[in-house]
Design a protein that fits this description.
Blueprint: H1 20-26, H2 29-48, H3 56-83, H4 91-117, H5 122-144, H6 152-160, H7 172-177, H8 182-207, H9 213-227
Helix pairs in contact: 2-3, 3-4, 3-5, 4-5, 4-9, 5-8, 5-9, 6-9, 8-9
Length: 229
């Protein structure tokens, strides 16, 4: 799979201290391996089918494959999170996992809405969901391995001011896919933009709402991570 250009990601993971959250996540290394392996298989499937074949029927079939893979991947991630149970070491563990679950339940529903709506261009929208999903996977991975719990109010304040953009969720190589299809590129961009707007709104409703400070902090930190991609 094409990777984000290095200059798009400025946050470095800080795994210098051993914390309770780290121990919690590390209890289930097999789950992480399973998720990574399934992601790898999906990526191979998506890129091998040639998603922009000029034949409409084939495009629809390929869009269905991407949709099924999106749904399967999110189901697997949700099942893996359920395996972690509710024996939390601290409130950060609880809100980390709650945030990640909400991400995939929300995106799973968005993907289903796109599929049910159909249309000749739905395969492009399904591909946009796939790209968006993998960016969230990367951000959530970084979220649980960033152990800085200091200056919560500063992080929350910074998160309130975050404005996510198209470039935070895509990578340079995506542009080459649409070089000969500017109309398809617009559909892709519009779909990513819509997902970004809804996602950011959902997170800021928590950050600005009547929620525990720790939960606001987790959501703000995730927005900050995404804004640096």
């Amino acid at each position: 799979m094409p990777k984000k250009s290095k200059n798009k990601k400025t946050i470095k993971k800080e795994i210098k201290k051993k914390t309770n959250t780290g121990e919690f996540i590390k209890k289930y290394p097999g789950v992480v391996v399973a998720i990574i392996f399934s992601i790898f298989l999906i990526i191979l499937t998506v890129w091998s089918v040639g998603i922009f074949d000029p034949n409409l029927n084939e495009k629809i079939a390929q869009g269905t494959i991407i949709h099924q893979n999106n749904q399967l991947e999110m189901d697997q991630m949700l099942e893996a999170l359920d395996l972690l149970g509710t024996d939390y070491e601290n409130s950060y563990d609880e809100y980390y996992l709650l945030s990640i679950k909400e991400d995939y339940l929300w995106l799973k529903q968005k993907d289903l809405e796109i599929y049910n709506k159909g249309g000749s261009d739905f395969y492009i929208k399904e591909f946009a969901v796939f790209i968006f999903m993998n960016t969230l996977l990367e951000a959530n991975d970084e979220l649980v391995y960033d152990y800085d719990y200091f200056n919560e109010e500063n992080v929350i304040s910074k998160g309130q001011g975050v404005k996510l953009a198209y470039n935070n969720f895509t990578f340079d190589e995506v542009e080459t896919i649409f070089e000969e299809s500017p109309s398809e590129k617009i559909i892709f961009q519009d779909t990513i933009a819509q997902l970004i707007n809804e996602y950011e709104k959902m997170k800021k409703e928590i950050i600005n709402g009547n929620y525990p400070t720790n939960r606001k902090y987790v959501e703000a930190k995730k927005l900050i991570i995404l804004s640096n991609y």
